[in-house]
């Protein structure tokens, strides 16, 4: 009992550093996912044959892996110290976003197995993108609770990840709800995405 108390006490004494690490890992994962998503969308313009395990999808799911790792670390922090409810709200949002991304990623792999090429706007992609937005938001909220001097250089990147992930969802929802009007001009770039609509 004494050893576990000692480990718990030493772990909790570094809680701000661990929360900073969680946020940085989630932000790096979000940036990796966004870049992989842009790369994946650009292959639609090349009309490259698409399977699930392309280098673009590996890049996207490497970002998901970073975010899930930060969520697991955040869950450990939550289990050891659940007193500060405001501070850990961001971690809980990050955890929810990670779960959505894992579920959406699994659904995306099944979709690729059944249909081969998939579109830009699919339920699995929207689930992944919603999880991505929640992860970006959760890491931003966690950073906001930490020392401003420590987070000053990272905060602009965190803000950009929230804005870009929200823009990605917004673009896809616009395509979904105004498919006929918008798919005509963007058909050449996102032809399979428009075909799903």
Arithmetic mean of pLDDT: 78
**General shape:** elongated
Helix content: over 70%
Radius of gyration, CA atoms, in whole angstroms:
19 Å
Order of helices and strands: HHHHHHHHH
How large is the count of helical segments? 9
* Proportion of residues in β-strands: under 5%
Q: Indicate how many domains the architecture comprises.
A: 1
Terminal Cα span: 59 Å
Number of strands: 0
Largest sheet: none
* Secondary-structure content class: mainly alpha
Low-pLDDT parts are 190-197
SSE blueprint:
Blueprint: H1 2-13, H2 15-45, H3 55-80, H4 89-115, H5 123-144, H6 148-151, H7 155-177, H8 179-186, H9 191-196
Helix pairs in contact: 2-3, 2-5, 2-7, 3-4, 4-5, 5-7, 7-8
Description of the structure:
With 197 residues, the protein is mostly helical. The protein has one domain (2-196). The chain has nine helices and no strands.
Identify the notable features of this structure and list them briefly.
197 residues; 81% helix; 9 helices; single chain
In short:
The chain is mainly α. The chain has helices spanning 2-13, 15-45, 55-80, 89-115, 123-144, 148-151, 155-177, 179-186, 191-196.
């Amino acid at each position: 009992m004494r050893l576990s108390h000692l480990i718990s006490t030493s772990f909790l004494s570094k809680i701000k550093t661990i929360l900073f690490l969680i946020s940085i890992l989630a932000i790096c994962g979000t940036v990796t996912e966004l870049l992989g998503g842009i790369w994946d969308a650009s292959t639609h313009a090349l009309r490259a044959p698409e399977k699930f395990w392309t280098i673009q999808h590996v890049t996207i799911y490497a970002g998901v892996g970073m975010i899930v790792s930060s969520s697991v670390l955040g869950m450990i922090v939550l289990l050891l110290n659940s007193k500060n409810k405001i501070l850990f709200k961001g971690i809980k949002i990050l955890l929810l976003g990670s779960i959505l991304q894992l579920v959406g990623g699994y659904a995306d792999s099944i979709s690729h197995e059944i249909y081969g090429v998939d579109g830009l706007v699919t339920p699995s992609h929207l689930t992944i993108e919603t999880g991505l937005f929640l992860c970006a938001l959760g890491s931003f909220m966690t950073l906001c609770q930490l020392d401003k001097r420590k987070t000053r250089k990272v905060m602009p990147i965190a803000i950009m990840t929230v804005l870009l992930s929200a823009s990605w969802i917004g673009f896809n929802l616009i395509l979904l709800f105004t498919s006929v009007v918008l798919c005509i001009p963007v058909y050449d770039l996102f032809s399979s995405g428009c075909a799903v609509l």
